[in-house]
Amino acid sequence: MGRKNQHFSTIIVTGKGHSQTKSFTIKTRYITYWKSCLFGGIILIGVLLVGVVALFSYTRAQNEKASNLQMQVAQLKQGMSSKKSPVVSPSPLAPVSKDTATRTQTYINQIQAKLKRVNEYLHKRGVQGFSTTSIGGNNHRSHFTSTETLELYNEYLLRVLSGLKATPLGYPHYGNITSGFGYRSDPFEAGSGELHAGMDFHGTLGEKVRSTANGKVIWASWFQGYGNCVRIAHGNGYQTLYGHLSAVHVKNGQLVQAGDVIGSIGSTGHSTGPHLHYEVRLNNKPINPNKFLSL
């Protein structure tokens, strides 16, 4: 077999002044190999240099940020140690104009007048009135600002409302009044009289009967001559009674509110026809319900 063709390159080296020359013969593939290595090395060195420069720039920027942050913290600490936080005093209330104060006082006077009228209505109906002298609680200050006075009256009116909810007011059934409170002749015994302890409202069998105040049912069944009967205990010693019902819709011990349906018109017990017998009692003594039908 013949030898493979191989390429050779000749390298000529000249001395100073071209007086002497030397030549070398080397395989061309070795020169190509070393060229590739040299070129790759140059590229690698370039990449490394770029990376070093980028890392140096990043590190420098981070150091500058850290230095600035440390400087700001030091300044803040110095400011906190050299200056005491001033005590913030509450800003004085803006002065109330004379017109505003006058209008506010007018409203207060109107509220007082309305409360006085409410008390008069309640006293006429045998209900203990609401004292306005307790407004402000145990505070013995001789003067309140307009705003404080209005807030106190608002709280007081809430107490008044709570008391009114437990006071039997209004109609248990909207029907004609056929018999009022007081002595009358007995419809079952001619020539004899009796105390009619409530008032009778005409109605149609099955019509709704409603509670006239918030309270607790203390009786919900048959009761002597009242037939099917409901009795409700309210606040301040008041009770209401609803007699001659055809049906009872509440149970003993049940809590009811003003306007709740508690039964239906009927003619049970000592009755001559469908109607509602309604009583208001104070400390278990019957009083005239007519006083409580309206304010």
Explained architecture:
The chain is an alpha+beta fold and 295 residues long. Among the domains are: 9-76; 177-292, Glucose Permease (Domain IIA). 35% of the residues lie in helices and 25% in strands. It is built from three helices and 15 strands. It has helices at residues 28-82, 98-124, 146-165; strands at 8-14, 21-27, 177-179, 182-185, 193-196, 199-202, 208-210, 215-222, 228-233, 238-245, 247-248, 255-256, 261-264, 275-282, 285-287. The strands form four sheets. Strands 3, 6, 8, 9, 10, 12, 14 and 15 form an eight-stranded antiparallel sheet that branches. The protein has a three-stranded antiparallel sheet with strand order 7-13-11, with no helix packed on it. Strand 9 (228-233) and strand 10 form a beta hairpin. Helix 2 (98-124) runs parallel beside helix 3 (146-165). The chain is elongated and about 170 Å long. The model has no long low-confidence stretch (mean pLDDT 78).
Give the key terms.
3 helices, single chain, alpha+beta, eight-stranded antiparallel sheet, 295 residues
